[in-house]
Amino acid sequence: MSCPSDNSENVPEPDPEPATNQLVWDGTLYDLSTGLYSDFGALNTGYDVQIVLTDATLERIDDGFQADENGIGHLIGFDLSSSDAEELILGEYTISSTPITGQSTFSADWLVDQDGNRLVEDSEDLDVSATSGTITLSGSGTNLNITFDLQFGQKTLKGNFNRAFTYNDQRD
Questions:
Q1: CA neighbor of 151 nearest in space, from 18, 8, 26, 21
Q2: Compositional bias of type Polar residues: which residue ranges (predicted)?
Q3: pLDDT digits over 7-51, tens only?
Q4: Are 40 and 48 in contact (CB under 8 A)?
Q5: Which of 9, 13, 67, 123 gives a 20 to 30 Å CA spacing to 3?
Q6: d(Cα 30, Cα 59) in Å, to the nearest integer?
Q7: pTM reported for the whole predicted model
């Protein structure tokens, strides 16, 4: 009589579930402390907003924002195009490499400081674009709740952010 084989060594551990204002990437939890909401207004394909979530403290400068002296350890950026040309609408957005008129779409990039210098623009750092996934927006104004579940090739990034955003008006 043979014993059933124990395959538990071959089963990967599931990723932990992120708490509010966290994301999980490749089994590691990352805190999200700052949200930046840049409003570009109506464009040809819809209403355009860029959202950046990060662990950094951002300071306002003339043409936008920069990280304080502690730098940036990680950030995720979303470029959203709402199906409504007059305002950003709430609900679910689907990924698309280019905005599609009449649809709520987005693209997303994930950047992580991998060399410890808190500058996410080095060639040694991770910078990848999402290949599939969804985000959901709820709330109102700049008090948005954003929940995301994204694929970057074979890896998943999921999380949420529920804090007031710093608003940056980029409309003409």
A1: 26
A2: 1-10
A3: 556 666 777 888 899 999 888 898 998 898 888 898 877 899 989
A4: yes
A5: 13
A6: 21
A7: 0.82
